Amino acid sequence: MPASERDEARPRVMAEAARVSMRDLLASCAAAKVISTPPKDPAPETPQATPATRQQRRAA
């Protein structure tokens, strides 16, 4: 085999499985973000008004 044939770069063939649509790529990124983001702290609970607290407010 002559040296010129060995030194030529062979054309790269992309495997069919390696092709990913932009939609699938963006969906996988969104899923990865959801999974890797820690959960948010729960919102602080607001105290519920009871009949006793309503009477205290009226008396004040």
Explain what this protein looks like in three dimensions:
The protein is mostly helical and 60 residues long. It is rod-shaped and about 100 Å long. It contains 3 helices and no strands. The relative contact order is 0.06. Residues 34-60 are annotated as: Disordered.
**Sheet/helix structural class:** mainly alpha
Instruction: Report the span from N to C terminus.
Output: 102 Å
Give the strand content. under 5%
- Rg over CA atoms, rounded to whole Å, is 32 Å
Low-confidence stretches: none
The major pleated sheet works out as: none
Shape: rod-shaped
Helix content: 40-55%
The strand count comes to: 0
Reading the helices and strands in chain order gives HHH
User: In DSSP terms, counting alpha (H) and pi (I) runs of 4 or more, how many helices?
Assistant: 3
**Whole-number mean pLDDT:** 77
Features:
mainly alpha; rod-shaped; single chain; 60 residues; 48% helix
Please provide a brief summary of the model.
By secondary structure, the chain is an all-alpha fold.
SSE blueprint:
Blueprint: H1 3-7, H2 22-36, H3 51-59
Region (Disordered): 34-60
